[in-house]
């Protein structure tokens, strides 16, 4: 799953690099802002991946194969309805994004193009969330890798073709995403349908069970608040960068891709924690639960150190590869160390998220995220005016550290009662 997740930030790097070849900071800023709005919208439905993983893992731990299938189909039904609504409302999201960012006109225009096209993929993207959640809940990392590699591989190839070779720019990057999501959805559905034909199927009544939907949506409420708080922090980070000027906005966009690479690099172990913790909770097995937490922490911190060293030594070369703008390169290079150390400051938060998602302790995760967002906001108000963009990056580190430490504190309290 580490390999699978690395394809996602690689796609972000390719998107940024394709648009960066035009040498226009406004286009880079528009892509960053458009991606942020898209992420904010889709954060509402992140439970279709993370919530499905936790519920399927617990059903797997209980040996309830029918419930595993039922969880997937409930998530798919929600995905279809929500995706169609999101695609229809894409013009409104574009207008809202322009209002929130308050960036210069050319940045706003590029952002609007990206949002209006990319949201057409909403039904396909949400179904892919549900399928990936099912696969990860069963601990099938190899299949998850294949699905993510197909999705992002098609997307990357089309980014080069449409965005760079045909010169479509931001629009080409967005259309590449729509096509990749659609083709990956077809493949994922074909795989699960062929598997289910050989198994006993859950009844329609079980799939449409209202208490089960209420439980899934209650998870959604907490995960949604948690995820919105996370995206709100990133939104404020991006918006504050825009206030420092278009070049700083573009440089931060490049560096945020490095932060995401480090984050997704570590998310493989967070996903392992989701599946193993969820299975242990379902089977009521405390020893495997503690072992999963311990091992994912050790490996997570080890890989975080590696990621930080790689970014510190090779980051300047990656910046030069991503953008041809000398101004953007110069600013990005000066703030590179801030981005490099996000791997170490964020690893505990990523890994604890995995444990809490797998255990479906969504309320604690929500509360600790709100606490972390308050700490981030206080740091932003204090540090950004005093230290400029360095203060902005310092605030992000405060956010990551508070998230990890607060969840670790709650974990110790939870473990005492979870298996009693």
Automatic annotation (TrEMBL):
One of its GO terms (molecular function) is antiporter activity. It comes from the Bacteria. The chain crosses the membrane at residues 26-48, 71-95, 115-137, 149-168, 174-196, 223-242, 254-276, 297-323, 335-356, 368-387, 393-413. Keywords: Membrane, Transmembrane, Transmembrane helix. InterPro entries: DinF-like, MATE_fam. The keyword Transmembrane helix applies. It is found in: Membrane. Its main location: membrane. It is a multi-pass membrane protein. GO terms for cellular component: plasma membrane. Belongs to the multi antimicrobial extrusion (MATE) (TC 2.A.66.1) family. This is MATE family efflux transporter. It comes from Mesorhizobium hawassense.
């Amino acid at each position: 799953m580490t390999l699978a997740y690395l394809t996602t930030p690689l796609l972000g790097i390719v998107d940024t690099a394709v648009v960066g070849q035009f040498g226009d900071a406004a286009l880079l800023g528009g892509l960053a802002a458009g991606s942020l709005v898209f992420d904010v919208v889709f954060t509402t439905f992140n439970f279709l991946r993370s919530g499905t993983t936790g519920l399927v893992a617990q059903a797997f731990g209980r040996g309830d194969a029918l419930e595993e299938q039922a969880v997937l189909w409930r998530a798919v039904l929600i995905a279809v309805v929500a995706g169609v609504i999101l695609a229809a409302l894409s013009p409104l999201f574009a207008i809202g994004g322009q209002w929130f960012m308050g960036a210069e006109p050319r940045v706003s225009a590029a952002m609007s193009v990206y949002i209006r096209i990319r949201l057409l993929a909403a039904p396909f993207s949400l179904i892919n969330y549900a399928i990936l959640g099912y696969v990860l809940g069963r601990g099938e990392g190899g299949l998850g890798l294949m699905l993510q590699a197909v999705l992002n591989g098609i997307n990357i190839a089309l980014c080069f073709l449409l965005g760079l070779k045909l010169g479509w720019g931001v629009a080409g990057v967005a259309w590449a995403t729509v096509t990749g999501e659609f083709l990956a959805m077809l493949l994922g559905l074909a795989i699960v349908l062929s598997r289910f034909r050989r198994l006993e199927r859950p009844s329609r009544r079980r799939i449409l069970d209202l208490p089960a939907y209420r439980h899934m949506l209650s998870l959604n409420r907490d995960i949604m608040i948690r995820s919105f708080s996370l995206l709100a922090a990133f939104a404020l980070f991006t918006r504050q960068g825009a206030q420092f000027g278009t070049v700083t906005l573009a440089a931060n966009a490049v560096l945020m891709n490095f932060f995401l690479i480090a984050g997704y690099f570590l998310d493989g172990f967070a996903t392992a924690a989701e599946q193993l913790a969820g299975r242990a909770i379902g089977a009521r097995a405390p020893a495997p639960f503690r072992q999963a937490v311990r091992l994912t922490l050790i490996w997570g911190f080890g890989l975080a150190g590696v990621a930080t060293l790689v970014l510190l030594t090779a980051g300047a070369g990656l910046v030069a590869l991503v953008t041809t703008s000398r101004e953007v390169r110069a600013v990005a290079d000066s703030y590179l160390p801030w981005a490099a150390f996000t791997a170490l400051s964020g690893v505990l938060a990523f890994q604890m998220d995995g444990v809490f998602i797998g255990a479906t302790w969504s309320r604690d995760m929500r509360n600790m995220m709100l606490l972390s967002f308050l700490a981030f906001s206080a740091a932003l108000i204090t540090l950004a005016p005093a230290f400029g963009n360095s203060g902005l990056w310092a605030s992000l580190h405060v956010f990551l550290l508070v998230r990890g430490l607060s969840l670790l504190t709650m974990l110790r309290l939870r473990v005492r009662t979870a298996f009693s």
